[in-house]
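Researcher: Re-running this chain for the archive, since the previous output was lost when a drive failed. Same request as before.
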Amino acid sequence: MTRRTVELVMLTIALLLALSGCEASKQANSQLSPTAASATATISLPEGWYAAPTPDGRIFADTSGFRSLVTSPANPSEIAGCGLLPLGGNQEAMPEFLWSTDAGHSWQTHAIIGASPTTFCALVADSLLPQTFILQTGMNWTSQLLMTRDNGATWQSLIIPSGYTVSLYGIPGYMMPTLVNGHLIAGFLPSGQTQDFHLNDLTLSGRFVPLDAHMPQPPKSSGLRGNTPPEAFAVDPSDPRHFYAAVYGAFGPNHNSGFRLYETRDAGAKWQYIHEWQTSLSLGIWVVPNDTVYAVDVQDEQPGIYSFLGGSAWRYTDVTSPGFFVGPSGKVLVFTSQGNTQSMFLFDATKQRLTSLGQVPPDLNSLTIAVIVDYPSPTLLVATSQGTFGLPLKTAS
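Model: Regenerated structure tokens:
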């Protein structure tokens, strides 16, 4: 089992433990749901923050770093998520589709017809097609993939190719699945194997195409096997044929460090070498509109944020152990931790500047789901097991 597979297993266990408190929920209708009485009265919020309670106190089936709350790049005013009722016990619940167009001040909800009861689920929004999402419930060989093109009013099952399992529970910046114009770019693992995922393209019409078969051969001195699967990848939100993939382990005395970054513009037929980080142990990759690439190194001799803007040279910004979130229009939010304190910053790659947003409220220090809403005004929305909360980003100082 590879180093990255072990990391995924550990995060999966954390997810299962965090979400073991969900039990069966009742079916929701498609009407605007009045916000339930807040269960967050004991949460202390500093000035500028607000509570965004969901109907009947539903949580976004995620407190361990995976994704069940997303923004819609095709409709930057919309956020959507997979909700469950947090009623305790280790029982499975019926997942529900929740969405808001006013940064969480009000919510609507649909039943997810065809979904099985679950304790966790993940959601991916199409970057070009509005109201289009793919949902996964379950993990490994119990997974379901369901797709909606009308904001959850109707759902269609997608067939996972025979002999494969899929995970949409991407670790931010590592194996984050992407949906671009009906193309789901994600990692699919052949049944019975424990090796790292290989990239594949599953279209909404059911076509399944391997994408990393033509990855450049690593240098013989690296000790890597041929066609090494990528350890991290990111897809251009405007073009499913254009993405970046990072290969781990080309450096170090035992080939146990370092990444090489490659780019393809023709869905993997040809790859081009872009950059390398010889001492990095953990590297995340993001691609945002206007052809900007971010590489976030959190375990290196020189950790921080590397940005590549429209073909210019790579730039480096010193940030210790950064957590990284990107909004649909490219707005970047950085979290840093020191002891029990989490600080937040807006990041301007063109000026290499971090603008303070203050600290995460102590009662929300466990937050692991965060999205940025672009409209009607830029807003950070975070979801925790205690509830959902917002911070207008105009409060930056």
